[in-house]
Amino acid sequence: MLADSAAAQRIIELREQVYLANMALQTHNLVTFTWGNVSGIDRELGLVAIKPSGVEYAKLSPANMVILNLAGKVIEGDLKPSSDTSTHLVLYRSYEDIGGVVHTHSPFACAWAQAGLSIPALGTTHADYFYGDIPCTRALTEAEVATNYELNTGLVIEETLGSTEPLSMPGIVVKEHGPFTWGTSPDNAVHNAVVLEEVAKMALHTKQLNPQVTSLNQALLDKHYLRKHGKDAYYGQED
Ligand SMILES: [Zn+2]
């Protein structure tokens, strides 16, 4: 237990944020049964909250979110954390700017993952959030599946992103599996999961209508991405 009451209060807030973000997956129709998980991190405390493994959404509560440190040691909670926890932890350890991670098996994103294809940036909806094609990882090797599978899933995401700034490409599809997204907070990571599923659906329909279509031109990609996210961003209201 944490002696410090300020830390304890922060953990309560983190539990609440992560609980609400998990419930939002259901609201946005991104999950079937229990297939999906959201985590969030308090960087100051170095603690992560994540959904417990295999618990129905109706039975989730802030209290049953599992609290772990970045090494994966459970600090608070009686339930087992999500089976994908090691993947989330790799991303938090590697990308210091991210505050939330989401994994779902949302069907359109999974279709691209199962086809082994990156989701091409075909229009401005995509360009508003993802600065280029959303990459698809390579398949994991037999050895990577046999030992430390979830950790290796995180490592293959990191390998695929390479030097890409993670918040400029806040999601990926893992080959033969499905999407992982991240963001500045658990809520922002859910937002990106919703957008990834929408652009996956649009891209599939676009390719069906016109199989020859190619990614939008760089100038339009820059215009849409940078007006929302660049240092000269001007979309939305001034603070
Ligand atoms: Zn999965």
Describe this protein's structure.
Helices cover 42% and strands 14% of the residues. It has helices at residues 5-27, 85-94, 107-115, 124-127, 142-146, 149-161, 186-209, 218-229; strands at residues 36-42, 47-50, 66-69, 74-76, 100-104, 171-174, 178-183. Strands 4-3-2-1-5-7-6 form a seven-stranded antiparallel beta sheet, sandwiched between helices. The mean pLDDT is 95. The structure holds zinc ion. Zinc ion is lined by residues 103, 105, 177-178. Residues 103, 105, 177-178 line the site of zinc ion (ZN). InterPro entries: Aldolase_class_II_sugar_metab, Aldolase_II/adducin_N, Aldolase_II/adducin_N_sf. Residues 16-204 form the Class II aldolase/adducin N-terminal domain. Belongs to the aldolase class II family. AraD/FucA subfamily. Keywords: Metal-binding, Zinc.
Please write out the topology.
Blueprint: H1 5-27, E1 36-42, E2 47-50, E3 66-69, E4 74-76, H2 85-94, E5 100-104, H3 107-115, H4 124-127, H5 142-146, H6 149-161, E6 171-174, E7 178-183, H7 186-209, H8 218-229
Antiparallel strand pairs: 1-2, 1-5, 2-3, 3-4, 5-7, 6-7
Helix pairs in contact: 1-7, 2-6, 3-7
The structure holds zinc ion.
The site of zinc ion has 4 residues, from loops.
